[in-house]
Amino acid sequence: MITFVGAGPGAEDLITVRGLKLLQTADIIVYAGSLVNPELLNNKKENCIVYNSAEMTLEEVMDVMVNGDHEGKEIVRLHTGDPCLYGAIKEQMDWLMREQIKYEVCPGVSSFCGAAAALNAEYTLPGISQSVIITRMAGRTPVPERESIRSFASHQATMTIFLSTGMLLELQKELIAGGYSPDTPAAIVYKATWPEEKVYHCTIDSLARTAKENDIKKIALIVVGRVLNSEYQRSELYHPDFTTEFRKGRKEP
Ligand code: SAH
């Protein structure tokens, strides 16, 4: 069996219990070496064979996994965070489907959750934002025009921006052109949950300068929105007046 496993955002104890068990029993592990914490590999069994996909093509990765599966091996494909975001797993899953090989996915903690923890932030605050936009700037991978940062910015929802640390001047211009005020709170979270994690609070118009001053060039997530520092309304759910399925409130619904 082949399992795509989310390794979590960095800290070696932020993989799921299921993911850890899969690592401990795998005969072959193919891990995304550019971002997965190598300490996680300490959990492998003695004769497990490890490949670093950062040095491999899709064809080479698939060769290892397909041949391993034909030999009846347990295979873990270890992706950073949760594999559903910018993980390039669809092309691997489609390949396996064509070869009629069964696979499963074990989710992981995405780095946008790791970043929220580092910031002690709640991305959804009543009266401020009830939505989180997960996006990126266009790089070598294009982003459809209808999903431009500028168009998303017009919603003033909380935004978590992946894969864009090298383009912060452009990012801040796009956010402002889309309607965010330049002094909207923002944060750069470098290597969230890793021992070397760093958090920089700033504003949209100082994103690029903050990154430059602190020499942050990659492995960072940008978080933008008034949830990072703002007045908000308390939740309805825990309000004494509010009736829920589990608790009768002071006021009739
Ligand atoms: N599937 C991953 C994202 C992979 S794309 C997930 O769910 O998190 C790689 C990008 O994710 C990086 O460029 C960076 O923007 C972000 N990233 C991954 N790990 C991170 C971490 N620990 N801290 C901050 N950003 C991280």
TrEMBL record:
Keywords attached to this Swiss-Prot or TrEMBL record, sorted alphabetically, are: Cobalamin biosynthesis, Methyltransferase, S-adenosyl-L-methionine, Transferase
Family, as annotated = Belongs to the precorrin methyltransferase family.
Report which residue ranges the record marks as coiled coil: none
InterPro entries (UniProt xref): 4pyrrol_Mease (IPR000878), 4pyrrol_Methylase_sf (IPR035996), 4pyrrole_Mease_sub1 (IPR014777), 4pyrrole_Mease_sub2 (IPR014776), Cbl_synth_CobM/CibF (IPR006362), Siro_Cobalamin_biosynth (IPR050161), Uropor_MeTrfase_CS (IPR003043)
Q: Which CDD domains match?
A: Precorrin-4_C11-MT
Q: Which gene encodes it?
A: cobM
Q: Which NCBIfam families match?
A: cobM_cbiF (TIGR01465)
Q: Protein name, please?
A: Precorrin-4 C(11)-methyltransferase
Gene3D superfamilies given for it?
Answer: Cobalt-precorrin-4 Transmethylase, Domain 1, Methyltransferase, Cobalt-precorrin-4 Transmethylase, Domain 2
Broadest EC class?
transferase
Q: In which pathway does it act?
A: Cofactor biosynthesis; adenosylcobalamin biosynthesis
Q: Which PROSITE patterns match?
A: SUMT_1 (PS00839)
Q: What is its EC number?
A: 2.1.1.133
Domain Tetrapyrrole methylase intervals:
1-207
Q: Which GO terms describe its molecular function?
A: precorrin-4 C11-methyltransferase activity
- GO biological process assignments: methylation
